[in-house]
Amino acid sequence: MSTRRPIWIAALYSLVLLTCSISVAKADRRVALVVGNSNYSNASLFLSNPKNDATDVAAALRGVGFEVLQAIDANKRDLDLNMAKFARLAIDADAALFFYAGHAVQYQGRNYLMPTDAEVEDEISFRYQMTPLDDVRAALDRGDGVKIVILDACRNNPIVNALRRKKKSGDSRAIDAVRGGLAKIDKAQGMVVAYATAADEVAADGDGRNSPFTSAFLKRLKEPGLEIEQLFRRVAADVNAQTGGRQRPETYVSLLSNYYLNQTDRIAFDKIKDSPDPAVLQDFIAKFSTSSYVPEAQNRIQRIEAAIRERQNLEARQREAARLAEEQRKAEREAALRKLAEQEEALRKQESLRAQAAAEKVRKEREAAQAQEEQRLRLVAEKERKEREAAKAQEEQRVKLAAERERKLREEAAQLLAEQARTKIAAIDRKEPPSLAGISTEIRTLPPQAAPAAADQPCDRDGAALAQLRSNPSLEAVTELERSLSCEKLRAQILRLRESLSAVAHAAPAVAAQSKPIVEKVTPPPAVVLAPPPAPPAAPKQEAAPKPPEPPKAVVAAVGATPNCKQDEARLAKIRANPSHADLASLERELSCERLRPQIVRLRESLPKEAAKEAAKEAAKEAAKPNEPAVAANPPTLQSAQSAPTGAKPAQSAPIVQVRSCDEERATLAKLRASQSREDVVRFERELACEQLRPQVIRLRESLSGG
Questions:
Q1: Tens digit of pLDDT for each residue in 345-371?
Q2: Using one digit for the tens of pLDDT, what is the confidence trace for 61-72?
Q3: Between the CA atoms of 282, 284, 290 and 296, what dihedral angle is there, to the nearest 10 degrees?
Q4: Which of 322, 481, 308, 320 minimizes the C-alpha distance to 396?
Q5: Listed residue (294, 223, 228, 286) closest to 258, CA to CA
Q6: Which of 262, 259, 258, 286 is nearest to 272 (CA)?
Q7: Which end of the chain is more exposed for a tag (fewer CB within 10 A), N or C?
Q8: Are 449 and 554 in contact, with CB atoms under 8 Å apart?
């Protein structure tokens, strides 16, 4: 009996509250006037959406408890009659709402609604054919409840443009106060005014059934529990997003408390707020998530759940013994599970140790294999280093031998030149007057000057080494020759050769290590040989170059000491500064200082092929002149000059062609070393005629192809 009494009291209390809530809901009377004008007597004012907007809004307002007066396509009389009915209904209403969709005009700061039969010709028409919005406000002010005005009436009105055109033509003086948008309503306590767009702006009619503003209003009106200011904020956001910011609704709210247009959540909550079933309250929260009654429903659920928990605790105390027994059994099962887990953990650790041991074994084997591979690579590198050192030693030995052969060949050439000079002097003595003959005799009888000859020997030795390096370039050898140079006048040439080889210095050691040293037959640079007279004495053949006789040395020294050497050196310096083969050929023909001839020959070899061809033509023309001692531009090699029989004219055509070809291709090879173009090197290798240059071309091509 004691248990049933609280339940009966609670049910009676719930019934009383439900009855009171229903009576309160019934006492809250709300009225609305909805107007939508689409079909105007003036066909240019036709609007497609206002009648649809008014119909849909009236239905929605009836759904949320409003008593609705509806007027579609209302003329001036219909609008006035409905306005009178609305004013009477608003007297005792708790809320009065006015919705208008159609044309409206602002004139002199006041808003006018346009009936369907209005014909606006001038400013007088506003007073007698239009409905002032102030009449709507007067009807709303008859009641003491919440006053709501919703104006979706800022459509683009051709009447405004027509009146403005009249003003421009001078028909009216007061039409400049006409505007297409609506003006703001004066502030009033207890009123809510919602504009479809901002003041003085025009709203869009829309392409669908409803205008953008009415569509957003109908959508948000279906959401119960939205406070009216929050509702119109969401409407404004929806319209702004839908029109891309072109239409921005505005709302004016002057209420002292919250107000809700859709109060279906309140009616529903009043029915279930005292329900003992939390599921019913959860359904209400899910259905009316935006309702202001959601916190109260949640508190009710918490109280019900607290009662349920208390009842569960009571039942739990009654089953305490059973629970303890169950916990004991559970503890025993957990102990068994822990033991099993510990065994599995031990097995996993053993397996992990075995895996670590196997991994360590593999690592050691890999390190041992890596150490063996590194040892093998060190041995291979050491072997390659020794091979490179051996190759370098062989190359140095070959260079030394070539330099020695060059020195011997130059000594033989000097001896041959001295012999030819003696022959020329003898011929001059036979032809010149006695005074000149005496001078030549004195020159021949001069005592030998050993100092200048000794001074020329380092230059000859360094010149031979430089010529060998030009035919087989090596950056290390050039650097070594530059360090040990004794003849300072060759230092500029060695510097230029080292700079031309520095571009490929990184590839030189690899090329030297991969290719075996090739001992070439050293061909000395072409020496200038004076043509002998018709019956010259035979030049003796010598296998090893002996020291020249003392008288020729005296002659060479005497000639080198003449002032002509200074003049020839000055001319040669000018030609080096501004290379010209014609000037070089002229200097070579008129040369008096014979010790400058090797430098002239090397300068001529460095000129381009075209210049070499021109030089050959000039030399041929000079050789063709009669009764003059001819100087060969490109004489035969020393071996062919020595092997010529005494008194016989040497055959020079084939050796000259070979020397010219090698000289031209040597100059081209020097340009290819500077340009570093592999395609040009390959093409030059295919067209190569001088075989003694082929090893150098091959090494240059391999260095440019990366090995």
A1: 999 999 999 999 999 999 999 999 999
A2: 999 999 999 999
A3: -70
A4: 481
A5: 228
A6: 286
A7: N
A8: yes
Residues 6+ apart with CB under 8 A from 129: 76, 115, 117, 118, 119, 120
**Rounded to 5 degrees, what angle do the CA atoms 664, 670, 675 make?**
125
DSSP label at residue 388: H
pLDDT band at 525 (very low <50, low <70, confident <90, very high): very low
Please check whether residue 273 is in contact with residue 300, taking contact to mean a CB–CB distance below 8 angstroms: yes
Q: From CA 490, how far away is CA 493, in angstroms rounded?
A: 5
φ, ψ of residue 121 to 5 degrees: the values are -110, -35
Say how far apart CA 485 and CA 463 lie, in whole Å.
10
Q: Is the pTM of this model over 0.70?
A: no
Angle between helix 694-704 and 653-675 (nearest 10): 10
Contact 462, 485 (CB under 8 A): yes
pLDDT score at 169: 46
Which amino acid type is present at position 334?
Answer: E
Find out whether 615 and 526 touch, Cβ atoms under 8 Å. Answer: no
DSSP 188-218: -TTEEEEESS-TT------SSSS-HHHHHHH
CB 568 within 8 A of CB 591: yes
Classified as helix, coil or strand, 288 is coil
Report yes or no: 201 and 242 within 8 Å, Cβ to Cβ: no
**DSSP β-ladder status, 250-254 and 191-195:** antiparallel
Q: pLDDT digit string (tens) for 95-133?
A: 999 999 999 888 887 888 999 998 877 777 778 888 999
- Decide: 591 and 629 in contact? Cβ < 8 Å: no
Residues 230-263 have pLDDT tens digits of 999 999 999 999 988 888 899 989 888 888 888 8
**Contact 9/45 with Cβ under 8 angstroms?**
no
Number of residues assigned to the chain? 707
CA nearest 70: which of 213, 62, 142? 62
